[in-house]
Structures are given as C-alpha cells and as structure tokens.
Design a protein that fits this description.
The complex is a heterodimer of chains A (522) and B (489).
Chain A lengths: L2 H19 L4 H9 L1 H10 L5 E7 L9 E3 L3 H6 L11 E2 L4 E3 L4 H8 L3 E8 L7 H10 L11 H9 L13 E4 L8 E2 L2 E2 L1 E4 L2 H8 L11 E2 L2 H29 L10 H15 L5 E6 L16 H22 L6 E6 L20 E7 L6 E3 L18 E2 H12 L4 H7 L26 E5 L6 E8 L3 E8 L10 E5 L2 E8 L6 E9 L2 E9 L2
Parallel strand pairs in A: 1-11, 1-12, 5-14, 5-15, 6-9, 6-11
Antiparallel strand pairs in A: 2-4, 3-4, 5-13, 7-8, 12-13, 16-17, 17-20, 18-19, 18-21, 21-22
Helix pairs in contact in A: 5-11, 8-9, 9-10, 10-11
Chain B lengths: L9 E2 L26 H11 L5 H7 L4 H8 L22 H19 L7 H11 L4 H4 L2 H14 L4 H9 L2 H6 L13 H11 L7 H10 L3 E2 L8 E2 L9 E3 L2 E3 L3 H9 L2 H15 L6 H17 L5 H8 L2 H4 L11 H11 L7 H10 L24 H13 L3 E2 L2 E2 L6 H6 L7 H12 L6 H12 L14 H13 L8
Antiparallel strand pairs in B: 2-3, 4-5, 6-7
The chains are: A alpha/beta (522), B mainly alpha (489).
Chain lengths: 522, 489
C-alpha cells in the first residue's frame, strides 16, 4: 500500500485548501511544507506513527511454569520437584494460573490490556537455540535459512532507498550493545543500538571518518565496507537526534532496577520525547531462560526472570499511559521455544517446542486467551507440546492489524507464505480499498478562535475522530469522536484553550486521514 | 590466475541500491607459489595471528607461502601459568576468589594473544575456543577454564577427534553443559545436543533420538572438585545398550565420538568452521565444491589431524585470492590486539584490552551463548564502531580509557621512519596504508589522506624531521583509524 504517498499527498492538498480559504499566507505555507517539523508531522499522522516493542526472552522460556495448568495431573506428575502448586498461582481461569511472580502481567490481563496466545511454534520445531532463534527472527519455515529479519524487511518498505538514503530518524532501536538479525534488511541492519541516549551521543562525538572519498573495491572487502559505512553514517546522524529526543522525554512510572526494566524505561522515555522509531527491541540476553538445571519453582532462577518480565512490562505500560502514548504502543514477548513437559534429572527442563506468547498494549484485544490449554497427553514424539498457532500468525497481526500492511504485503514479507492473522489488535484498518474511499474535508473558519466546522464527505457511514496536534507532532486535544453518515455533512467542534499559533487538525475516518493546518488566533 | 588477482577495481558510490555481488573467486587449492609481498604476507599474518609489527612483516616478505606456514604453524613459548593453576579453591561459595582468578586468567590469556611472536598457536587456540565455548560465570573455577584452554593449546596443531574425546570428559564442559547432572535414569540433554550441534556435526545432521541416546552414553563422567581431571563413576553410567546413528551397543564416550566422526557431516563441519573463521564468512558454491569438500576429504584421510588441512588451506591460491584481502570484519580481539601489535605498543595496558573487548561483546571466557560469538557483521554496530574509533583516538592522544592511563606518548615519527620513501608524503602514506589497511585503496583516497596529514598544504611541506611532523602524523593516524576500512582484516 502506498500509504506514505497517499498521506503525503493528502496533507499537502489539505494545506492548499487551508490557504485558499483563509488568511494563511503562501510564504508561511511553503515554509511549512519544507520545514522538518512538517515532514515529521506527516510521518506522525501516518498509520505508522504506531510503535511495537519486541521483548525477546533468550534461552527458551518454560511456558508451563509461566502459565500453570493447575488442574492437569500430568503436569504435576511430570514435574515432581519444580511444579508450581495450584494454591501458589495467581488466578487466571479455572484451569490455568499465573506464576506467583507475575502479578503485574496478571493485572494487565485483568484490565484487558494483555492477551495470551497459547501453543505458539511452527512446523518441525527446531530445538537448537541457534536455529530456533534465527527462525523466529527471520520468520522462516524451520528448514529455510535467510539472513534478513522480518522487522528489517518491513521497515525497508518504509525506507526503500536505505542505506543510500537514511530516514530522518532511526526506524528501529535495540537497547543494548548488539544488533539483532531481525533488524537486517537487504541493505544491512536498519536498526541502531545503544544503551542510553546520552551514552550514545558521548560515544559518537569526535569519531567518524573525515575522508569523504567513498571508493569501494570490487571485492568482498568492498561488500563489507559498504555495510560498515552504513553503520558509520547511522551512528553519526542518529546520535544527535536520539539525545535530543531523550532529553525531551520523561518517565512517569517507577521501575525496578533490573536489565529489562532499565531498557524499557529508555524506550518509554524516547517515545515520550517523540522519537519516530517504529520498532524497539529489548532482550533478556545470554540464554538466561535456558533452565536446564535448578530452574526452581515458586522461587529461584526462573521465578526471578518471570518477575523481571512481569514488573518491567507493567511499569512500562503505566509509563506510556501517563505520557499519553498508550494508544500507539503495543508489544509482545517471544522466545525460541518452550521447554519439555517432563522435568529432567537435574531439577530443570530441556528444550521443548510450543509455548505461550504475551501481547500487551491498550489497543490490544486483551483479557483473553487465544487457543486452548496445552494438551499434555497428545505430545509430539520427543515429548513436547504440539503447536496450535504458527508464530507468524502473530507477526501477521502486528503487520496487518497494527501497522496496516495489506495481505499481499504481509505475504511478501513472509516469503510468500500466508498465515491467518490472530485477532490481537483493535482493527482500524478498513477493508475498503483506497480507490473506493474518498474523504473530502474542508475546515472553516481558518484562522479561528473558538469554534471550527469541518465539512466532510465520505462514501460509507463510519466513525470519525478529530484531533489537534502541535507542529511538533504531539496531540494537544482529546480526540473528538462522532459517527458520520455517508455523504456530505458539517461537523462543528469547540477549540480548546491553546496558545495562539499554527496547529494541525487531523480528521480520521476509518483508517483514512486528512489533515490541515489550523491557525488559532485570539 | 585471472585478471582480478592482479588488479583491484574500484567503483564509486552510485545512487542505485547496492546488491551484494556474488563472489567471483575461481581459485582453488592449488599451491600459491608467488613470493610473498607486504600485501600478501600481510594478508596471511592478519588471518593467522592477532597482528604483527611492520618489522616482523618485512622479515617474511619474499618467502613462499609454504615457508611462512612452516614458520608460524609451531607451538610457542607461553608465560608461566598463574600459580593457582592446579590448586582448587576448597570453598565452593567463594565467589570473590573465583572472580579474582577468572580475572587473572583473562589477563593471562590476553597476554598470550598479545605476544609479538610469529606463531599462529594463539589464533588456533582462540578458534578452538569458538567451537568448544564455555562460560566462566557458570563454571566458576578458573582452574577448570584454564585446564580446558590448555587442551586447546595441546591439540591446536593436533587431532580434532582426540580433542572431542577430551572435551566429553572435561571438567569445565561438564559444569558448563550440565554433564554432572546427566546420570543414569536422569538424563540431561544439554551436552548431548550441543555435542552434535556445535562441537561435531552442525544442525540437521542428527535426530532428537540420537541426542537422547548419546546423552545416555555420556553419563558417568563427573567433575571432581578436588582435582582438574574429572572422574568416571560407574554407578552413574547408563550401562544399557544405546542406538546412535543406527548403531547399537553399550556405548560410552569413546564410542559416541568414533561413531560421530564417521558421519559424513563431521569433517565438513570442521572445515566450514575453519573457513569461516580464517577465510570468509560466506562460502560460495565454488568454494564449497573446490575448497570445502577436498579439505574435508583430506581431514578424514588424515584421521582428523588438523595440520595437513591448515597447510593446504593457508598455502592455497584460494586463500591468497585478492577477493579475500580485507574481507574479514575485525573481531574485538583482532582490533585491540591488532592496533597495539602494529605499533608495538607493548605497554598498552592488558586490562584495557580485556575490558575493551568485553565492552565490545567479546569478553574472554564469556561468550554470549553456547553458540559462541556470532562474529562477522554482528561485531559492528552503532555502538561498537564509534567505540573502536574512540579507543584509537584516546590512544593517539595518550588519554585515560576505562580509568587506566594509556601507554606513554607514542613516537609516531619513529613509527613512520620504518617505512621506505618516508620523505615523500604520498609514498609514506601509501606505504602506511598498505600496512594498516588490508586491501588496496583507491588513489583518490590516498590523496585525501595526504591532505588530511598536511592539513591541505602542498606535499613539499612534508619534512619527516620537521617540527610539524609529529602533529601531522597524528592527523594521519587519526584519519586512518577512523576509516571504516580500518575495521576490515
């Protein structure tokens, strides 16, 4: 879908309307079109002002001790030393209990902002950390090896000239000091990595090549050199903007002091600061979830990890809600595999197969479990839980329902394979094709002081939302929502008390948006 | 030999999107007989050591590849071991002591890697530690880690099968991969899986059933916390028949190793590991047929003695092909030890090397996962690249890094005087670049570097004994160290 072009065109068109109908001078208008903040604004008002946060649990998280099958005697007999007694679990439903350290995620689930998908894996699940992780990161079948990641491939569609032309702001950020394969696109890694914005800035300052000649030898070294130059340019150009956005952002929630919390805290800060990054990746690294030995039960290694995951996600959700970004951020956890039903001889568990995933966010269709309880009788031949859903059914939902990619686009991002999307996100994408849906909107008077009327024409009845943004891209009004009928109509609304100046009024009907500059005067 | 072996061609940046070009190598394992030059000997030594001084490099120019291989493929004299090497800490909870000794061991290892000796021993030891990974935080006992590392030293020009047998009984590996917990009736598959996947065959060459059965055969071997060697405890051994790769018997360690090494995939696995570590990450179809397969046959035929394979590879036309000059992305080890060895900055603090490598995600004795370091492009990201440039910039101005005062001011004029034609600015820059950058760079870049050195003044203003020379050389070195090209090996 050429959503990007569509919106660019519509925003420009809207300005023209504004100019003809108002005192908006042509000089001011041209300045706005070419100014960075206008470009940022266009970017922000796209469907893809949405953000997804990937939380990777390295090592293979034990699903059965995360969501405990409290009524299943096979679970208890298979795990004589590491089981979680029913009485210790936090209640989820009649057959499943949360691990006792997962109060935070339980609360999110109870308030409807967290969904669970049971039994996620893929055909012929690979029990190697290495292969298993690559499969999840690249989004391939178990016997297909690729070196680009699904996130990298998606983001490349937003920046088709990468790495020759870098987007104004980094499309993907990994918190830490490594870059995941999932961020690889055909032009190298489309993501950047750092621990904190300030550290990143200090590091890059004073480094970098001053030689502008960029000859490339026609050998493998040249191939690697191009990659190196891309990274070098990304570091140079992004370290400043990341620092600025970091300084502009704040945290509004308290976090525990642990690895994942510290990373999510920076993510929330950057989102609040307005960084236009679409994908954040945070990981609990070093195969921490690889609990072959002394895994523990209600306390111990695994319990501590689950507590870290649960409390950090809870704090993060509180944070983005308080900063007003809850509507545009979702996240999910993933791990290369679950673990075997039967505990091993060393009070741990060996590599398994299917396991649950957790999807969180205000716009997530939460408070529900997709899939049935793990079947502990009908196991695969190794003794592992069989899959109910392919992990790409979750990825597909992220791409389709959340980022607005079409089925065809998703299919091409997943190597021409088609997966039925799981219903995970509030669907805002209309099934009507672009060409059938024309949204015409005029705004008057402009400039205005108290009231504004939008004259709007649409082909189908739908719900519409009107929101005012500052030119820095921050929503400054609570969305005004109303039902529209097919055809032409006038919608009037009051302008909230705001400083005099130029704003951006966005009309959103279904998945379609129009925007115009609205000048507010005394 | 084709034209490409003689000339490097350059392209300049185009607006079109670059797609990776297919490798164009057509050279195979035929011997490379051309006498070595600064360029080709430099390539050889960059790959087989952690970097050598210009003097050492010059000393091998005009030798043949075979002569140079014979010179470097020899054991070297190591420092004496830390005095605690065989004294086991008696308190299993004494983490202060564990950490202290692990830290001392890291320094000891880094010091061996930094030795300015023309031997490929430590590079081979490092290579083997990429196969048999380990984790000091899980093993805790530095004695076991060192003991395992010494086995790499014993076998680095020796026998891969013997090494595999050793590793199945190695105290550090038993601790790391839960071998101690793997007992009759209570199997733990952690080691069994990694044995096939990472140590011998690679993914796709064994079944889940093979893992289960082999894990049973690996039972019985247990770490003794009072001695370096593990012990075989009969009543913890699964004394029943097992079926591995279709062969049934009451197998133990030696049997599993034998059966595994009979698998077609085994020799191929090791040769591919060697190739990707020493030649290039990407194995072309041509290389698979003309390099990997013949070397795998050679490895099998030599009953897994590794030295004949090393010799064949490192003296081949394929290895010396211009395509691979500079195709390796420097690991943190290559980078840190490289720039200090190139400048013979032997007083650059080893603790900075160890810490700096750790910050760049290559902490010795502590790879991120059992898979080891992923390497290749994962070394370079928006944190690590500026970090490396910063490290060099601090080295140039003799500032502190990681709370450590760096080596006293380095004499760059003395460094420059090693190179021929050092009174001619362009020739000097050309010669330094030929030494420090792993492939030939375009003439336009040399000119840009000369400009950088002389701050735009005409070349006649270059006087190697002039008062400005030290400052000018600092500008040149800063420009070279900050080139992305410098991160290629």
């Amino acid at each position: 879908m050429k959503r990007r072009n569509f919106l660019k065109t519509s925003a420009t068109a809207a300005i023209t309307i504004g100019a003809t109908q108002s005192m908006f001078g042509s000089i001011y208008q041209n300045a706005l079109i070419s100014s960075p903040s206008m470009q940022q604004l266009q970017a922000l008002t796209e469907e893809s002002d949405r953000i997804v946060v990937l939380i990777q649990l390295q090592g293979g998280n034990d699903g059965l001790n995360t969501l405990v099958p409290i009524e299943n005697s096979i679970y208890y007999t298979s795990r004589p030393t590491i089981n979680i007694p029913k009485s210790e679990t936090l209640s989820l439903n009649s057959t499943t209990g949360w691990h006792p350290k997962m109060l935070g995620m339980k609360q999110l689930y109870d308030e409807g902002t967290l969904a669970i998908v049971q039994g996620v894996s893929y055909e012929n699940s690979d029990r190697s950390h290495f292969r298993g992780t690559d499969i999840w990161l690249t989004a391939t079948d178990s016997d297909v090896i690729k070196n680009t990641g699904w996130i990298g491939r998606y983001l490349e569609t937003l920046a088709p000239n990468f790495p020759i032309t870098l987007p104004d702001e980094p499309l993907a950020v990994q918190l830490g000091s490594t870059l995941s394969m999932t961020l690889n696109c055909s032009g190298g890694s489309i993501g950047i990595t750092f621990r904190t914005p300030q550290e990143f800035y200090n590091l890059v300052k004073g480094t970098g090549s001053t030689i502008e000649d960029e000859s490339i030898p026609d050998t493998s070294a040249g191939h690697e050199l191009e990659y190196m130059r891309t990274i070098s340019k990304a570091a140079q150009s992004y370290s400043v903007i990341v620092k600025d956005r970091g300084e502009a952002g704040k945290n509004y929630a308290t976090y525990q002091n642990n690895d994942l919390s510290n990373k999510l805290k920076v993510v929330a800060q950057l989102i609040d600061g307005g960084l236009k990054t679409k994908v954040y990746l945070v990981a609990i690294e070093k195969n921490s979830f690889d609990t072959h030995i002394n895994q523990g039960g209600i306390t111990g290694d695994h319990a501590n990890l689950l507590e870290q995951v649960s409390t950090s996600i809870k704090s993060f959700m509180e944070d983005i809600a308080a900063s007003g970004n809850a509507d545009r951020v979702v996240g999910f956890t993933f791990s290369e595999f679950g673990r075997r039903v039967r505990e091993n001889g060393s009070t741990g568990t060996d590599h398994g197969s299917a396991a649950p995933m957790f999807v969180f966010g205000k716009k997530v269709l939460g408070g529900k479990i997709i899939g049935s309880d793990p079947n502990l009788v009908n196991l695969d031949q190794v003794g592992d839980i069989k899959m109910q859903y392919d992990y790409r059914q979750v990825y597909g939902a992220v791409l389709g329902q959340w980022f607005g990619s079409t089925d065809t686009e998703i299919q091409s991002l997943l190597f021409n394979k088609s997966f039925e999307q799981l219903p995970l996100f509030e669907k805002t994408i209309s099934s009507v094709k672009d060409s059938e849906f024309q949204l015409e909107a005029n705004v008057f008077p402009n400039p205005t002081s108290e009231k504004v009327t939008v004259s709007i024409t649409i082909p189908h009845a739908t719900r519409a939302e009107f929101t005012l943004y500052s030119l820095q891209g921050k929503a400054v009004s609570i969305p005004f929502a109303t039902e529209l009928f097919a055809g032409s109509q006038n919608v009037s609304m009051n302008i909230p008390r705001l400083p005099v100046g130029a704003y951006y009024l966005e009309v959103k009907a279904g998945s379609y948006k129009k925007g115009t500059i609205l000048e507010i005067q005394q | 030999m084709n034209r490409r072996s003689f000339f490097t061609t350059f392209t300049t940046k185009s607006d079109e999107k670059k797609v990776p070009k297919p490798l164009e190598v057509t050279t195979g394992l035929d011997p490379y007989s051309t006498p070595l030059t600064i360029r080709t000997a430099g390539h050889f030594l960059r790959r087989t050591t952690f970097g050598v001084s210009y003097q050492d490099l010059k000393s091998v120019v005009s030798k043949t590849a075979t002569q140079l291989f014979d010179q470097v493929a020899v054991p070297m004299q190591n420092d004496s071991l830390p005095n605690w090497w065989n004294t086991m800490p008696d308190n299993p909870m004494n983490f202060v002591l564990f950490n202290q000794q692990q830290g001392e061991l890291q320094l000891w290892l880094a010091n061996q890697m930094r030795k300015p000796i023309l031997s490929m021993q430590e590079k081979m030891v490092f290579f083997l530690s990429h196969i048999y990974t380990n984790d000091k935080t899980k093993v805790r006992y530095a004695q076991f880690m060192l003991n395992q590392n010494q086995k790499f030293r014993q076998q680095c020009f020796g026998n891969l099968k013997d090494l595999a047998t050793d590793m199945c009984k190695d105290s550090a590996i038993l601790l790391f991969l839960d071998g101690n917990a793997n007992r009759v009736g209570r199997p733990n598959e952690n080691f069994g899986r990694e044995f096939f996947e990472l140590f011998t065959l690679g993914v796709g060459n064994y079944s889940e059933e093979d893992i289960k059965e082999a894990s049973r055969a690996f039972t019985g071997w247990q770490t003794s916390f009072t001695s370096l060697d593990s012990r075989f405890i009969t009543n913890r051994f699964d004394n029943q028949p097992k079926t591995i790769f279709g062969q049934t018997g009451n197998w133990g360690v030696e049997d599993v190793v034998s059966i595994t090494f009979e698998q077609q995939a085994c020799a191929e696995y090791y040769v591919r590991k060697l190739y990707r570590f020493f030649v290039y990450e990407i194995i072309s179809n041509f290389a698979e047929i003309n390099v990997i397969q013949p070397l795998a046959t050679l490895l099998r035929d030599s009953n897994f003695e590794i030295k004949p394979v090393l010799k064949k590879l490192f003296t081949s036309q394929h290895f010396f092909d211009i395509e691979f000059h500079g195709s390796e992305i420097k690991s943190p080890a290559n980078f840190f030890i490289g720039f200090t060895n190139e400048t013979k900055a032997t007083n650059y603090p080893t603790n900075v090397v160890v810490l700096g490598m750790a910050i760049q995600s290559q902490e010795l004795l502590n790879p991120p996962t059992v898979q080891g370091w992923v390497g290749y492009r994962s070394w370079i990201n928006t944190v690590t690249l500026p970090q490396r440039q910063q490290v060099c910039n601090l080295f140039l101005v003799n500032r502190t890094y990681l709370n450590t005062q760096l080596t006293p001011a380095y004499d760059w004029v003395n460094f420059a005087k090693q190179f021929p034609d050092n009174t001619d600015a362009k020739k000097l820059v050309t010669n330094i670049v030929e030494y420090l950058v792993a492939f030939d760079v375009a003439d336009s870049q040399i000119n840009a570097l000369v400009d950088e050195m002389l701050a735009g003044l005409p070349a006649i203003y270059w006087k190697i004994d002039g008062v400005s020379a030290p400052a000018q050389l600092l500008l040149l070195m800063k420009a070279i160290y900050n080139l992305p090209e410098y991160q290629l090996n």
